[in-house]
């Protein structure tokens, strides 16, 4: 994978940078600028080198040219963070946009409109890739969160701009995750949660091969418990996931990692913030109740495993942490990871959201900006946006 070190002289040149500015909006303003800040090192490095920057990103999933998903709030926030001359283009491509790129001075930034205003983006349309390539002399992909998609702005354009490299964020994401798999400091403890075994089957299989311990939480634990003969009550537990869990448990003795399950649970009579709750000292969920979080004994045991680890990877909450009464297990794991003495990697998605909500995002070694891309890389899949930069 080529990086900024391979970009060469860009002084006075137009550099198209694919960023991931798919940020939440709050009443027409950026609600969380984490992803914008994550791209700043690459943006500032290119500005330092005299580049004229053209930034392209998607925002949400607009139908047609939805003005509510314009890049205007993003451009305004970027101007505040960089104190640069930041302009918003009236469209993604076209003659007017091309003229604006020609008028950029060194260090100036032009933000293109939402690239998904163009239906050809997600189809990797050659015509759109051609039009994007006309806007720049070099291309930098710094959007790890979209690297698993072969879109016009992530893959197609690389075939039309010969000088194409990875930005600092994309490089760090790929390097960190590959090291986690190929040469981790041991013991490597993996914490996996979320809803469905099928969603993370390949991830579990990969970590059974490379990790020392896998800690299972969230709704994902119930198919494993059911596979072991335990009752799960009304907990989220699909038949297909139970069969997958049986297969994984049957083969786990052949692998390097041990797979650990909860020993106690928090139950609720319904999935609601005002539900009646009770702690279950065990894992056999009675009828009419559902598991909504790991229990305190499990939280303490998982925290102890994390504390002993030299490397920790976490993806997926331990319970329905979006409801405060069900958040204790996820918070305990987040606290343990924040205080862990070893290398800590949080794999984006809900886990990253949890670290942010608990005020712990700055206390991990690496907080990934791409949940789906991170998991696909771990699974061993080719990421089109990364492969295109080789």
Structure description:
With 390 residues, this protein is an alpha/beta fold. Helices cover 35% and strands 16% of the residues. The protein has 13 helices and 17 strands. The protein has helices spanning 34-48, 72-82, 95-103, 126-133, 168-182, 201-210, 221-227, 239-251, 296-308, 328-339, 349-357, 371-379, 384-387, and strands spanning 14-18, 25-26, 29-30, 52-56, 86-88, 109-111, 138-141, 164-166, 188-192, 213-216, 258-260, 265-268, 277-280, 290-294, 311-315, 343-346, 366-367. Strands 5-6-4-1-7-8 form a six-stranded parallel sheet, with helices on both faces. Helix 6 links the parallel strand 9 (188-192) and strand 10. Helix 6 packs across helix 12 and helix 9 runs parallel beside helix 10 (328-339). It is elongated. The protein starts with 13 loop residues before the first strand and ends with a helix. The mean pLDDT is 95.
Structural class of the helices, strands and pairings?
alpha/beta
The share of residues in extended strands comes to 15-25%
Query: Could you give the order of the helices and strands?
Result: EEEHEHEHEHEEHEHEHHEEEEHEHEHEHH
Are there runs of 5+ residues with pLDDT below 50, and where? none
Number of strands: 17
Contiguous helical run count: 13
In spatial order, strands of the major sheet run 5-6-4-1-7-8
**Biggest β-sheet strands, sense, barrel:** 6 strands, parallel
| Rounded Rg | 23 Å
For the residues shown, what is the average pLDDT? Answer: 95
């Amino acid at each position: 994978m080529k990086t900024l070190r391979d970009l060469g002289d860009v002084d006075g040149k137009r550099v198209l940078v694919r960023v991931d500015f798919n940020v939440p909006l709050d009443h027409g303003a950026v609600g969380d600028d984490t992803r914008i800040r994550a791209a700043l090192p690459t943006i500032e490095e290119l500005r330092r080198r005299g580049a004229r920057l053209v930034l392209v990103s998607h925002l949400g999933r607009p139908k047609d040219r939805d003005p509510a998903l314009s890049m205007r709030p993003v451009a305004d926030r970027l101007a505040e963070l960089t104190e640069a001359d930041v302009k918003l283009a009236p469209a993604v491509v076209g003659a007017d946009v091309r003229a604006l790129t020609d008028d950029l001075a060194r260090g100036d930034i032009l933000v293109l409109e939402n690239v998904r205003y163009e239906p050809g983006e997600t189809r990797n349309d050659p015509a759109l890739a051609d039009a994007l390539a006309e806007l720049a002399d070099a291309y930098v992909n710094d959007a790890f969160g979209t690297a698993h998609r072969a879109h016009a702005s992530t893959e197609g354009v690389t075939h039309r701009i010969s000088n194409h490299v990875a930005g600092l964020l994309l490089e760090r994401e790929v390097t960190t995750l590959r090291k986690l798999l190929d040469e981790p400091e041991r013991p490597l403890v993996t914490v996996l949660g979320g809803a469905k075994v099928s969603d993370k089957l390949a991830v579990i299989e990969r970590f059974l091969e490379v990790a020392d311990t896998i800690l299972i939480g969230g709704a994902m634990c119930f198919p494993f418990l059911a596979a072991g003969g335990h009752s799960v009550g009304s907990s989220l537990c699909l038949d297909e996931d139970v069969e997958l869990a049986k297969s994984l448990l049957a083969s786990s003795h052949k692998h390097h990692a041990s797979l650990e399950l909860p020993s106690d649970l928090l139950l609720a009579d319904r999935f609601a913030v005002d539900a009646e709750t009770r702690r279950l000292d065990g894992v056999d969920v009675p009828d009419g109740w559902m598991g909504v979080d790991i229990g305190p004994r499990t939280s303490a045991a998982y925290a102890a495993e994390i504390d002993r680890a030299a490397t920790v990877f976490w993806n997926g909450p331990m319970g329905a942490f979006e409801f405060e009464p069900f958040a204790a297990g996820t918070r305990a794991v987040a606290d343990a990871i924040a205080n862990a003495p070893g290398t800590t990697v949080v794999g984006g998605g809900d886990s990253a959201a949890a670290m942010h909500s608990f005020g712990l995002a700055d206390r991990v070694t690496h907080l990934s900006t791409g949940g789906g891309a991170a998991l696909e890389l771990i699974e061993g899949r080719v990421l089109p946006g990364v492969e295109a930069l080789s």
